[in-house]
Amino acid sequence: MEIVELVDFLKNYDGRKIRLMEVCGSHTHAIAKHGIRDLLSPQIELLSGPGCPVCVTPTAYIDKLIELSLEPNTTVATFGDLLRVPGSKESLNEAKGRGGSVEMVYSPMDVLALAQDHPDRKYVFAAVGFETTAPVYTLLLDNAIARGLDNIHILTALKTMPGAISFLCDNGAQIDGFIAPGHVSAVTGADYFNDLAAKYQIPFAVSGFGSKELVIAIYGLVQMVINNDNTVKNYYTSVVDSGQNDIIEKQLAKYFRPADVVWRGMGIIPGSGLLLKEEFARFDAGSDGLDEDNKRNKACRCGEILMGKAKPHDCPLFGKVCTPMSPEGACMVSEEGSCFNAYLVK
Ligand code: SF4
């Protein structure tokens, strides 16, 4: 079928209500950027899931980074979008304003040069992300070991997707199909989601990030829902294979072990995090047990939004107290966040 025919179908669909969730924050952004919601019938609802890394990072993690940044002779290095994520009381940016040592970098590898140039200083990298980003930290550790740098550490809030998807399905999220995370799938392969599809009898469509790719995947997913085809279909074959990348799998298994970790607003999800193995504990800046998740503003509904149980406009703070310039919750900080994207198109 031509793309216009797919759009025509999606626009005029008048069957039962279908609720689809895009799990990946980059999909959330792409869907907003391309105006994909405007192409869909009111009977097809797109919900944003817990796939924006900074959105699901608990406040205890931000608080720990702040604490480290204020320790003598210690610098916290991070990507830019983590700087404004609220902790329980303040953000890293605010801590920097009162003397915290915080360095924004574009790659974890930037820390190698810093650590080499300042051997007496301790550098802590804020390792946030999913299966896609985790391999980069293994390269950082490979290089730190090869260069004999013992002043590099990571504070990990790394997470893996299956536990979060299971959590949603087990907790009444009422989702008919998942747009599987495209970047994660590029690392894990599409088959990664087979067990979830079978266990929860729910279809998955792996999608790219362009407007046509999204339309094709959403059309495919709607067809799967209608036909009760609860399998995984890969609509992103230019990038995603069926199986996992062996080299990455070995790298992750070398350094990390699965752990029970907290997702912001969702609580502890068993086996959904990656912590350093015991033999690499010397590189850990204290990642275990960061379980507190105290909202700075109690009215923030990030947790419900990440679980598809509320939408950004349901939050009383949306666009008034909470904006991208002045975020009250993590979902308003990153360009992958649901509230940020809803604000862009409001
Ligand atoms: Fe939280 Fe702001 Fe979103 Fe409300 S609008 S849920 S305060 S991030």
Automatic annotation (TrEMBL):
<dbReference type="InterPro" id="IPR042243">
    <property type="entry name" value="HypD_1"/>
</dbReference>
<dbReference type="InterPro" id="IPR002780">
    <property type="entry name" value="Hyd_form_HypD"/>
</dbReference>
<comment type="similarity">
    <text>Belongs to the HypD family.</text>
</comment>
<keyword id="KW-0408">Iron</keyword>
<dbReference type="GO" id="GO:0051604">
    <property type="term" value="P:protein maturation"/>
</dbReference>
<dbReference type="GO" id="GO:0051539">
    <property type="term" value="F:4 iron, 4 sulfur cluster binding"/>
</dbReference>
<dbReference type="GO" id="GO:0005506">
    <property type="term" value="F:iron ion binding"/>
</dbReference>
<keyword id="KW-0479">Metal-binding</keyword>
<dbReference type="InterPro" id="IPR042244">
    <property type="entry name" value="HypD_2_sf"/>
</dbReference>
<protein>
    <submittedName>
        <fullName>Hydrogenase formation protein HypD</fullName>
    </submittedName>
</protein>
<dbReference type="Pfam" id="PF01924">
    <property type="entry name" value="HypD"/>
</dbReference>
<dbReference type="GO" id="GO:0070025">
    <property type="term" value="F:carbon monoxide binding"/>
</dbReference>
